[in-house]
Each structure stands twice: as C-alpha cells, then as structure tokens.
C-alpha cells in the first residue's frame, strides 16, 4: 500500500450547545490542523498515488467553505454538532466526491484540535 499525505489548517467558529460539551457550549474559535492521507494499492501510470499539487488543491477546495466560517450558520452542519469528528467527516466526504472517478484512492482525514487531541475519519467503501 502506498500513501501520500498533505496538510493545511482551517479557522472556524462554532458552539456545541449541549451540557455534555461543558465550556465549549459557548461560541468560540478554533484553528484545526488538517492532514489528509491518500492511499492506493498500486501506483498509477505516472508512478504516484496522486499528484502532490492536485492533492493540495483538493484539500484547499474541501477546506474553503469552512475557512473563517461560523459552523453554527453553515448549512452542512444544520441539526448536527460541529465536533471535530463531524468536521473530519465533512472534509472526507468532499474529497471523496472530488475523487469519485478514482475509487481506488483511499482517503483518511486526521484533524488535530490541539497538541493533545486529534481525531481521524477514514472514508469507507468508496464506490
């Protein structure tokens, strides 16, 4: 299995309105470090998993709708808690749609909320 990882960050605002989330119930900002790993069992005809420039552009496209957004007002998070896990899923889903014509490329999103906490989401069963 081969892999290629690229990274960036996204700055958001959100609240998690449930007592479960303690002080994060209030509106607050977060800078999330995002790393995406693309995998492939065999290299393509150019001997790569995915072109690095394309991988960076795909990640940028996935993050752009979130950049500086208040996720409490973002339509894709309506009726959902905008936890790090759901944000990672959102990014993974957007990447999967962008790579729909290449289902042999696996996608995993690693999102670091702070130096001590991170979540991961792997897009399952790409068509």
Automatic annotation (TrEMBL):
Catalytic activity of the protein: 7,8-dihydroneopterin 3'-triphosphate + H2O = 6-carboxy-5,6,7,8-tetrahydropterin + triphosphate + acetaldehyde + 2 H(+)
- From what superkingdom does this record's organism come? Bacteria
GO molecular function, a single term: 6-carboxytetrahydropterin synthase activity
List the InterPro entries: 6-PTP_synth/QueD, 6-PTP_synth/QueD_sf
Question: In which pathway does this enzyme or protein participate?
Answer: Purine metabolism; 7-cyano-7-deazaguanine biosynthesis
Which Pfam family is an annotated match for this chain, by its short name? PTPS
Which family does the similarity line name? Belongs to the PTPS family. QueD subfamily.
Return the protein name: 6-carboxy-5,6,7,8-tetrahydropterin synthase
Task: Record the organism.
Answer: Brevibacterium aurantiacum
Taxonomy of origin reads: Bacteria, Bacillati, Actinomycetota, Actinomycetes, Micrococcales
């Amino acid at each position: 299995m081969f892999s290629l990882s690229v990274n960036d960050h996204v700055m958001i605002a959100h609240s998690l309105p449930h007592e479960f989330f303690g002080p994060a119930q209030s509106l607050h900002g977060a800078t999330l470090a995002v790393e995406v790993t693309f995998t492939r069992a065999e290299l393509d005809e150019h001997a790569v998993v995915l072109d690095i420039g394309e991988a960076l552009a795909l990640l940028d496209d996935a993050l752009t709708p979130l950049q500086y957004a208040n996720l409490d007002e973002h339509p894709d998070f309506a009726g959902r808690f905008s936890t790090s896990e759901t944000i990672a899923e959102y990014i993974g889903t957007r990447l999967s749609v962008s790579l729909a014509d290449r289902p042999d490329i696996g996608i995993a999103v690693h999102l670091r909320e702070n130096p001590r906490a991170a979540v991961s989401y792997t897009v399952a069963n790409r068509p």
